[in-house]
UniProtKB/TrEMBL annotation, chain A:
Belongs to the sigma-70 factor family. ECF subfamily. Residues 15-77 form the RNA polymerase sigma-70 region domain. One of its GO terms (molecular function) is DNA binding. Residues 164-183 are annotated as: Disordered. Pfam families: Sigma70_r2, Sigma70_r4_2. InterPro entries: RNA_pol_sigma-70-like, RNA_pol_sigma-70_dom, RNA_pol_sigma70_ECF_CS, RNA_pol_sigma70_r2, RNA_pol_sigma70_r4_t2, RNA_pol_sigma_r2, RNA_pol_sigma_r3/r4-like, WH-like_DNA-bd_sf. The gene is sig. This is RNA polymerase sigma factor. It comes from the Bacteria. Residues 103-155 form the RNA polymerase sigma factor 70 region 4 type domain. Signal peptide: none annotated.
UniProtKB/TrEMBL annotation, chain B:
InterPro entries: NepR. Residues 9-43 form the Anti-sigma factor NepR domain. This is Anti-sigma factor NepR domain-containing protein. Pfam families: NepR. It comes from Sinorhizobium americanum. It comes from the Bacteria.
Length: 183, 52
């Protein structure tokens, strides 16, 4: 097999997880897939920089993450406006998550600061070690650890608070509806 | 060391994984397979051109 085919094969193997990462970060299929597409093109163009035998998944995740933040900087507050993003996610894509439970979790995840969200996803779902996550995010090991801890605490707070209101559908939909009308 | 299932951290970890896996298990959409085919075709053409 040529090095080229090998590269493509390894990339394909990492794609389902790369998509899941993008989707967990962004919360919308269309935007997440656009980001994955941009990542594939970037990675393909940079394939000479990739050393076969090293961690393709971590390499792709790093490219995706850098691409996301550079796009966010370009678009200014469009994506960073988490309130608008939250409303939009709920308004157009509530069916993407099978159970109500996962929809609640998705909403909680959306409320985290981006640095905490990516840290807990990388370590808690993508299967990276703290060291690998620190390399992907370009920060110190201790920083990743504290981000993951803060993310866990925050998610616990959000989900417990929501839990008390679980029995009344109006209590969950009312603030969302009013928020949608305000914006 | 396995956390107990009523441990809030374990619950969060399980939900996060479930959310992640719900996307991961969708597999690879056709648009990405097509994109890779195209990228490969372009590259093969340029390799052939280069050998002339």
């Amino acid at each position: 097999m040529s090095e080229n085919q090998e590269f493509k094969r390894e990339m394909l193997a990492a794609l389902p997880s790369l998509r899941a990462f993008a989707m967990s970060l962004i919360g919308r299929h269309d935007r997440a897939d656009d980001l994955v597409q941009d990542t594939i093109m970037k990675a393909w163009a940079k394939q000479d920089h990739f050393e076969m035998g090293t961690n393709m998944k971590a390499w792709l995740f790093t490219i995706l993450r850098n691409e996301l933040y550079s796009q966010m900087r370009k678009r200014g507050r469009e994506i960073q406006d988490s309130d608008g993003h939250f409303t939009e996610t709920l308004a157009h894509h509530p069916e993407q998550y099978g159970s109500l439970d996962l929809q609640d979790f998705r909403r909680a995840l959306d409320q985290l600061p981006p640095d905490q969200r990516e840290a807990i996803i990388l370590v808690g779902a993508s299967g990276f070690s703290y060291e690998e996550a620190a390399t992907i995010c370009g920060c110190a090991l201790g920083t990743i650890k504290s981000r993951v801890n803060r993310a866990r605490q925050r998610l616990q707070e959000i989900l417990q608070i929501k839990g008390e209101n679980d029995y009344g559908p109006d209590e969950t939909s009312a603030p969302i509806t009013s928020r949608a009308f305000v914006s | 060391m396995r956390p107990k299932s009523d441990d809030p951290n374990a619950q969060i970890a399980a939900k996060l994984k479930a959310l992640y896996l719900s996307v991961q298990e969708e597999g690879i959409p056709a648009r990405f397979l097509d994109l890779l085919e195209k990228l490969e075709a372009v590259e093969q053409r340029s390799v052939l051109d280069g050998k002339e």
